[in-house]
Design brief:
Structural class: mainly beta
Number of domains: 3
CATH topology of the largest domain: Elongation Factor Tu (Ef-tu), domain 3
Shape: elongated
Order of helices and strands: EEEEEEEEEEEEE
Radius of gyration: 30 Å
Strand order of the largest sheet: 5-11-8-7-12-13
CATH superfamily of the largest domain: Translation factors
Largest sheet: 6 strands, antiparallel, barrel
Number of helices: 0
Strand content: over 45%
CATH architecture of the largest domain: Beta Barrel
Length: 213
């Protein structure tokens, strides 16, 4: 009766592309090995693909969050896929909902009911002091009153002039008094949070757009 010999080799391979990492294990088993001869393993054309989008439900990172004197503190502990959608699980119970924003303590965010903004006006009815509109910041809305109209910008000459109102297609500077507090950040620092839509409360049409100064 002849004995059968086998030899097994295991290789752990890690492939990294940017912040995405894929680990694979390759096992090669040879049977009926001639123990008198050396075993040589040659690897060629090894290909590993990393899915662009992770599988639904797969963890893509870990975020720790806690409350400290009324302010939400959070930090990114680990991350495996940039740009992917994620669900944040907070350590403490915090009253937040869709449209709310999370900031690190290093961000200079101002909670205010008054904003000064560059406005592009898009309707025939002029924007003027005391007019009321609905301002929409992302998914959040707040009733607002025009507190002041400072100037109209001359887009052809590059200068500006004092004015009390903005007409159709005018671009100017205006300030608004809001009914609800918002987290104000200039458009130059954050294009998503620094812009808003001005809605006519009578027609529900878009009257203009604003960019926080």
């Amino acid at each position: 009766m002849s004995a059968r010999f086998f030899q097994s080799s295991i290789a752990n391979i890690r492939i990294t592309s940017g912040s995405v990492t894929e680990d694979i294990t390759v096992t090669i088993t040879l049977t009926d090995v001639d123990e008198t001869s050396a075993t040589v393993i040659t690897v060629s054309d090894l290909a590993v693909s990393i899915d662009e989008n992770p599988i639904a439900g797969a963890p893509i990172g870990t975020i720790q969050a806690s409350v400290n004197t009324g302010s939400l503190q959070f930090s990114l502990v680990s991350q495996s896929t940039e740009g992917a959608l994620a669900t944040l699980l907070l350590e403490d119970e915090v009253n937040i909902s869709r449209g709310d924003s999370l900031f690190t303590p290093s961000h200079s965010i101002e909670a205010t009911k008054t904003i000064n903004a560059k406005v592009c006006w898009m309707q025939d009815k002029a924007l003027q002091v005391e007019n009321k509109y609905l301002l929409q910041f992302g998914s959040k809305k707040s009733l607002a009153k025009v507190a002041d109209v400072d100037e109209r910008i001359d887009i052809s000459g590059g200068g500006s002039e004092n004015t009390a109102a903005l007409g159709l297609n005018d671009i100017g500077i205006a300030s608004f008094q809001l009914a609800h507090t918002i987290q104000s950040i200039p458009y130059q620092k954050n294009k998503n949070l620094g812009s808003f839509i001005i809605i006519d409360i009578q027609t529900n049409n878009t009257a203009g757009v604003g960019f926080i100064e």
